[in-house]
Amino acid sequence: MTCLPKPELVCPAGSPRAFDKALKAGADAIYLGLRDPTNARNFAGLNFTPHEVRDAVTRAHRHGRKVLMALNTFAHAVDPTPWFKAVDAAAAAGVDALIAADAAVLAYACRVHPQMRRHLSVQASATNHEAIALYHERYGIQRAVLPRVLTLSQVAHVVRHTPVEIEVFGFGSLCVMVEGRCALSSYATGCSPNNAGVCSPAEAVRWDDAGGVVNARLGGVLIDRYAPDEPRAYPTLCKGRFDVQGQVAHALEEPTSLNTLDVLPDLWRAGVRAIKIEGRQRSAAYIEQVTRVWRQALDRLTPTDAPWQPSPQWHDTLARLSEGRQTTLGALSRPWQ
Questions:
Q1: Does the pTM exceed 0.90?
Q2: Using DSSP, how many helices (H) and how many strands (E) does the chain show?
Q3: What is the largest CA-CA distance in the chain?
Q4: Residue 30: predicted pLDDT
Q5: Are 2 and 18 in contact (CB under 8 A)?
Q6: Beta bridge partners of residue 257, listed in sequence order
Q7: What is the CA radius of gyration of the chain?
């Protein structure tokens, strides 16, 4: 049994429409970012203006919900001013918490806006309680988002040894790298996703029709090849298909999504305070459907040791929305250990 509060459901929004869908579908908190390189989903046509952030905060607070703003890329050493201005914009909009990774950004927020909650972004790559303690002591963080590389027992160990709230990803795309440490895209494009906010900058992506097949290139590097009627994935180097000793396959990582529904009670018992849904780059319809499933799942949790059986319909819905229509528990489950 557990008397711990149920985890908060933290959902993404890449647009005002997606925000409204997440709000209506039952998100407890919604995270978003500005239309600039200060956030790690800096895609053209997505994200919010400062005015839209203020409107979103007003709508969320009217329904008793929270808004978190992601400033989770690393500030440029030459001129961190845009990141500091983004912190000011978050404070002016009245967001409930700032999600940041860069030490200078956290220090600025702590010094200039001490009343604003600070959450440590997954981009900070804090995988143990000692690292989290450093951010807590120096910058007063009140929550940390764990990278998707820890087992259940490791998550529980972190929770037991820190006074900081712990948030984990519950559903969404996986990354082959520890977040915040990827250099693959930088190698191919010369543009760091940790500064610019995108793994595959639009200007580096090329599609070309070559004799009945479509080549996908990133920074001039051929990363996949599709038949004319084959669905085409967003071109990221880590999920490309390559010829390795005559075998064409996903050499680094297959397209698949993390889905932790089966271990949700275990995460609750471990003391996890928030379940995060990945996907600010996803459609409003995607966010609505995923949020609705997770709202139902969290509402069904009971503080008993009764067997947990997720609804098959939940799994069916999430499978349809997963990358490659595949799901995994990822690092959370390592039966071979």
A1: yes
A2: 11, 15
A3: 63
A4: 98
A5: no
A6: 173, 327
A7: 20
Dihedral pair phi/psi, residue 308, rounded to 5°: -100, 125
Residue 243 has a pLDDT of 87
How far is Cα 83 from Cα 102, in angstroms, rounded to an integer? 9
Say whether 42 sits in a helix, a strand or coil.
coil
Phi, psi (5° rounding) for residue 315?
-65, -40
Tokens representing residue 170 in the block: 């519950």
In which band, very low, low, confident or very high, does the pLDDT at 325 lie, cut at 50, 70 and 90? confident
Burial class from Cβ neighbours inside 10 Å (0-12, 13-18, 19+) for residue 295 reads middle
Q: Where are the domains of the chain?
A: 8-174+256-332, 195-249
- Amino acid 215 reads N
> Tokens in use for 324?
């490659």
Is CATH 3.40.50.300 the right assignment for the domain spanning 8-174+256-332?
no
Asked whether the beta carbons of 155 and 146 are under 8 A apart, the reply is yes
Quick one: pLDDT at residue 279?
A: 92
pLDDT digit string (tens) for 214-252?
Answer: 999 998 889 899 988 888 777 888 888 988 888 888 887
Comparing 209 with 137, the larger pLDDT belongs to 137
pLDDT at 199 over 90: no
Q: Among residues 269, 254, 194, which one has the least CA distance to residue 224?
A: 254
Burial of 312 (0-12, 13-18, 19+ CB in 10 A): exposed
DSSP secondary structure letter of residue 41: -
Percent of the chain with pLDDT strictly greater than 90: 66
Residue 59: which residues within 8 A CB-CB, separation 6 or more? 19, 20, 23
